[in-house]
Specification:
Layout (H helix, E strand, L loop, with lengths): L16 H14 L2 H15 L1 H8 L3 H7 L8 H11 L16
Helix pairs in contact: 1-2, 2-5, 3-5
């Protein structure tokens, strides 16, 4: 018997602000710029790429390309999409322990 496998789309599970926040927190924790950009693209698809395109003034094609697995969005594009998604980027200092060398 042959089983038919389907592709998993993480956008389908992002149906609440809490789920989106947790998903993006994990992406930011990775500190991998490519993964963070891809995660933003997943969230944008979950919210509706047409809506995000309208809110940012960018084309759907540009958004798909920028936030694809191999995309490299500019900081301006990233901030515009985050704003449209209601995702806030904040900064905080790390408590670095001095070395005892």
């Amino acid at each position: 018997m042959v089983e038919k496998l389907t592709n998993f789309d993480p956008a389908e599970g992002l149906n609440s602000d809490e789920a989106i926040a947790a998903f993006m927190a994990e992406a930011f924790a990775s500190e991998d710029a490519g993964y963070i950009a891809h995660a933003l693209g997943v969230v944008a698809r979950a919210k509706g790429m047409t809506q995000i395109a309208s809110e940012t003034g960018l084309s759907r094609e540009q958004l798909y390309r920028s936030f694809s697995e191999n995309g490299n969005p500019t900081l301006k594009t990233t901030i515009a999409v985050m704003k449209a998604l209601g995702i806030e980027l904040t900064a905080k200092s790390h408590d670095h322990q001095p070395s005892l060398a």
